[in-house]
Design goal:
Chain A is an alpha+beta fold and 246 residues long. Chain A contains ten helices and five strands. Chain A has helices at residues 8-20, 25-37, 68-76, 84-91, 109-120, 152-173, 185-195, 200-207, 211-225, 230-239; strands at residues 43-47, 61-65, 96-97, 125-133, 136-145. The chains are: A alpha+beta (246), B alpha+beta (223). Chain A binds chain B through residues 9-10, 12-13, 16, 20, 93-95, 131-136, 138, 153, 156-157, 159-160, 163-164, 166-167, 170, 178-181, and chain B through 92-94, 118-120, 149-154, 156-159, 161, 163-164, 166-170, 175, 177, 186, 189-190, 193-194.
Chain lengths: 246, 223
């Protein structure tokens, strides 16, 4: 009896399992929206950051869950230059709350202005999970909202989710970099032959297996790539770098 | 001894006394002097040895010109191990895995002079891929590990399937997370591809290394 208690730990694990097989960018965005909303976060981004003076943040965006007006405003005025949170991402290996990004408002009034402007559009409280590897800073997952759960347990759950969300973002946004092979060697082989116009029967002769087996492999590949037919499967496989045009 | 990643177990260890000693000293340089890990027992002999350096441990030691330049360690999860004895709170959600075909993976190290700036070193990449290679050929389904969170993006980037056991937490000033890494041919291909390594094993087995999964004695039901 009673209400289901929301358990951030279990929710994080369920989230990680659910996004594991996703390949469609919009599905991932929708899923992230929903998960972050459970903690009261209404805005989020997964993005690389330009080192000061070198490049623009919009070129390094992976997934943008910001309000479009805020996003346009931020890009147009290159507000990364005024952003104390962005600056701290390079220094902090671990996650941090926006309020803990250190800066002196007296010395850096633009930073204070930016944080106030963000608060005015509902991004009053924020949490950042910088993504570092042994090679250095890679990207950041930054989330914000008005009434948020930033208890220690929630932050640990969000930290874990962010690590997997970032990896998923790279996989779906930069599919030409074949990072995770979804398809088996046999599935890739069959799709490669399909890509050059061979029928399932012809492929069965080439590989010395039954036509039914070829069809099974094509179906399995379509399921993994979430595509409705053979042509779409070939296209998806090419885009993901699972097969290449000879 | 030929260059390569040598498999050292209880049954062929007598061939590797010098190399094992070198590995303990290299571990001391890294884990005690450089990283200053606080939980490790302090010894006078400049060797880093803990309670899991027993005959059950398998060491994979990268030897080059008979010098240990990198290495890593695997331990049966069916025995009391680091995660079960020292850090079970990191597995609070999924529980500590204890299976014949799951090994605990601890200590991954590269000699400081072989590290490369801003990128994974070739030596490190070979040790990592050899760990997967060894686990695959020993029939392991997964390895469990407590790792710094900064390894997770790299491992996921290899296409490894890493399943967390609990939420990340801070220990001794560092963010750590425990997880299992699935062992598969795809995992091995993934790291080799990421680091441009050949599809060729670097493992060396001298003498008669013991299989990781020990055969159980069958007790007949009927005499």
């Amino acid at each position: 009896m009673g209400e289901d208690i929301f358990d951030p730990g279990r929710a994080a694990f369920d989230f990680i399992d659910e996004i594991a097989c996703m390949t469609d960018q919009q599905s991932v965005i929708t899923r992230l929206d929903r998960e972050f909303a459970k903690y009261g976060f209404t805005a989020w981004v997964i993005t690389g950051l330009p080192t000061p003076g070198a490049g623009r943040i919009e070129d390094m965006m992976l997934l943008n869950g910001w309000n479009p007006d805020w996003s346009n405003h931020y890009f147009k005025h290159n507000l990364i230059k005024d952003d104390p949170v962005g600056a701290f991402c390079f220094k902090s290996i671990g996650p941090f709350e926006w309020k803990d990004a250190p800066y002196d408002p007296a010395q850096w009034p633009e930073a204070k202005q930016l944080m106030n402007a963000a608060a005015d559009v509902g991004m009053r409280h924020g949490f950042c999970v910088p993504i570092h590897t042994p090679a250095g800073f890679q990207a950041v997952v930054s989330i914000a909202g008005e009434h948020v759960d930033l208890s220690p347990y929630a932050k640990r759950a969000l930290h874990l989710m962010a690590l997997y969300a970032h990896d998923k973002a790279v996989s779906v946004v930069r599919p030409h970099e074949p990072r995770r092979r979804l398809l088996t060697k046999r599935e890739r082989e069959i799709l490669s032959w399909t890509a050059v116009g061979k029928t399932a029967w012809e492929i069965s002769r080439i590989l010395g297996i039954s036509e039914a087996t070829v069809v099974d492999h094509l179906r399995a590949a379509a399921t993994k790539l979430e595509t409705p037919n053979k042509v779409a499967t070939v296209v998806a496989a090419l885009r993901r770098g699972e097969i290449a045009l000879q | 001894m030929i260059d390569g990643v040598h498999v050292v177990t209880a049954s062929n260890r007598h061939l590797y006394e010098e190399a094992i000693d070198q590995s303990y000293r290299l571990r001391y340089r890294i884990y005690i002097e450089e990283l200053k890990w606080r939980g490790l027992p302090r010894r006078d002999d400049r060797c880093e040895i803990d309670q899991f350096d027993t005959p059950d441990a398998v060491n994979l030691l990268y030897l080059e010109n008979n010098r240990v330049i990198g290495g890593t360690r695997l331990f049966p999860s069916t025995e009391p191990h680091m995660l079960s004895e020292v850090f079970p709170h990191f597995a609070a959600i999924r529980g500590v895995p204890r299976e014949d075909d799951i090994a605990e993976w601890t200590r991954f190290y590269v000699a400081p002079e072989r590290r490369e700036e801003h990128r994974a070193s070739r030596v490190g990449s070979i040790v990592l891929s050899s760990m997967i290679d060894y686990a695959l050929h020993e029939g392991l389904s997964a390895v469990s590990a407590l790792m710094n969170t900064y390894w997770l993006p790299r491992f996921l980037g290899y296409g490894w399937r890493v399943r967390p056991l609990g939420l990340p937490d801070v220990h001794d000033g560092e963010w750590l997370v425990a997880g299992t890494i699935d062992i598969s041919a795809e995992a091995l291909a993934g790291i080799r591809r990421a680091h441009g390594l050949a599809e060729r094993s670097a493992l060396v087995r001298l003498g008669v290394p013991r299989p990781f999964i020990r055969e159980k004695r069958d007790v007949p039901a009927v005499a």
